[in-house]
Amino acid sequence: MEKVLMTGNEALARGAWEAGAKFASAYPGTPSTEILVNLLQYKEIYAEWAPNEKVSLEAACGAAVGGSRSVCAMKHVGVNVAADPLFTFAYTGTNAGMVLVTADEPGMHSSQNEQDNRYYAQQSKVPLLEPSDSQECLDMMKAAFQLSEDFDTPVMIRITTRVAHSKSSVTLSPREEVPHRQYEKNVRKYLPIPAFAVALRVQVEERMKKLKDFSEKTPLNHIEKGGKIGVIASGMCVNFAKEVFGEDATYLKLGFTHPLPDARLHEFYKLGHDKVYIIEENDPYIQDWVLKHGYECISIDPPYGEKTPDVLRKAIFGDAMPVLDVKTEDVPPRPPVLCSGCPHRGFFVELSKRKDTIVAGDIGCYTLGFAPPFNAIDYVICMGSAFSAAHGTQIALEQGGKDTRVVGVMGDSTFFHTGINSLIEVLYNRSKTICVILDNRITGMTGQQEHPGTGRSAYGDPAHEMDIATVCKALGAKHVDVINPNDLKSVREVLDAAYNRDEPSIIITRWPCVLKPMGEAEYKEFGQNLFKDKFEVNDKCVGCKACIKVGCPSISMDGKVSKIDHSCVGCTVCAQVCPVNAIIKK
């Protein structure tokens, strides 16, 4: 029995290993990415990156049907993609245990929305666990597998960003080698055609009654007696509340939150409280439950963002704890920017010059193309939407009598995620939308995870590499150009050709992310001097700031002339835009 510090994500992975899990699948997405990254270290578990969350969950469900305990992890918006198999697997039930981890993100630190996935558990009729620290992440993962098998159901675990990334003490235990469950053919259970699904629907309701009884009895839901203030909370909000109220409050701590424990709620209110606060993030899931039973409670505004201790103190007491008085007026803003040497920069430099253009973006590092100095992305909808959304805009503009061209931009990992279907929409309907795939050879935004186009598995072993250009041509694309995005002349020429066509154009910018670990294949394709050269500014500089306008963080003004610092990696874009040849190789 060893005690260590672990993040919630590390502890979830450890819990899956201790529970005897054998299969794990995920698509990277903050704040859930590190769950699978940590699962990769356990040799008893086969772990993989999937092209998207839907197929990830489908693979985990299939593994569970086949008899192996399986786990699937994704960020909150990933469950939108995976909802189809989730709702159906809730009907059929499982064989071995199957756990789905959803990592919600109150405050939207790295996400396009706030979304409360507790409602997914409610709507799909599956049990839901909410750990509040790393120890509970480990323990609840083990409990979830047991619940899954005891009640013949997939189980959801909901964490939030602070649970995923905060470290706390965890007691480790040995792995439990769970016997493999034999698969038995049973079409009435696993094949939900309408005739069979009618009976499965009844079984779901019967299961929910049993889970309701479990919710009332489990210590995962319990009362911690203290002062006359009442607090009802789950997950990290329990810790936030305890930091504010301490022992002055009595807590109804909810760890099993679907179905919720009505009897425990009545027991809690019978204790008598001066006030009862509901501390929860995102939607009023717990509050609505309390109000449904006719009890008075106080919710905390605002109804968005995180309910951190300072937010709670301001809302309840009107003031937060004192902080250091720091003058911030002289601190420059530090918005996120494309890295020095980012292969997306050259493309956006040229695209930004096309003024009569609407650009649909997607989810990835390249979304930063919307910001100055490029101002080159106009809207984003969701993962994999760029091409299909751009197609819709292109049709609408034509219907309105406008000749404006529409460009869709997405990354390589996004293309394999759901972008292929998006491209099919464009090709099938003969749209003249210009489709650009920014292939930086890795899943860059979430920390360099492999995908079907990198030629490596999650373990770094050689894998089948799906060539994007070949895929596009196989779908019927006639015009597919693969270019080096650091060569501005090439970018300009392929854009000119695409703008002059009245049929689909595919442009693939192929150059590795500057943060990507280089292997033999990369050096062979892109040259042994990849990211080795440095550039500097000579005395020809006239201070025109053309180089500044490429948005590279390695370039700044030194008085009336520009300078390039040590972080330069030699992408050459600044040298190409300099009108007086003042930027040269060191």
Question: What layout of secondary structure does this protein have?
Answer:
Blueprint: E1 2-7, H1 8-18, E2 23-26, H2 33-39, E3 46-49, H3 53-65, E4 70-75, H4 76-92, E5 98-104, H5 118-124, E6 128-129, H6 134-151, E7 155-160, H7 161-165, E8 167-172, H8 187-190, H9 194-217, E9 221-224, E10 229-234, H10 236-245, E11 249-254, E12 256-258, H11 262-270, E13 275-279, H12 285-292, E14 298-299, H13 309-317, H14 344-351, E15 357-360, H15 386-399, E16 405-411, H16 412-428, E17 434-439, H17 468-474, E18 480-483, H18 488-499, E19 505-510, H19 520-526, E20 535-537, E21 555-558, E22 561-564, H20 573-577, E23 583-585
Helix pairs in contact: 1-2, 1-6, 3-4, 10-13, 14-18, 15-16
CA-atom Rg in angstroms: 27 Å
Helix count equals: 20
Straight-line distance between termini: 56 Å
Most strands sheet = 7 strands, mixed
What do you see in this structure?
The relative contact order is 0.08. The model has no long low-confidence stretch (mean pLDDT 96). Strand 16, helix 16 and strand 17 form a beta-alpha-beta unit. The chain is built from 20 helices and 23 strands. The strands form 6 sheets. It has a 7-stranded mixed sheet with strand order 3-2-4-5-7-6-12, with helices on both faces. It has 586 residues and is α/β, with parallel strands linked by helices. The N and C termini lie far apart (56 Å). The chain is globular.
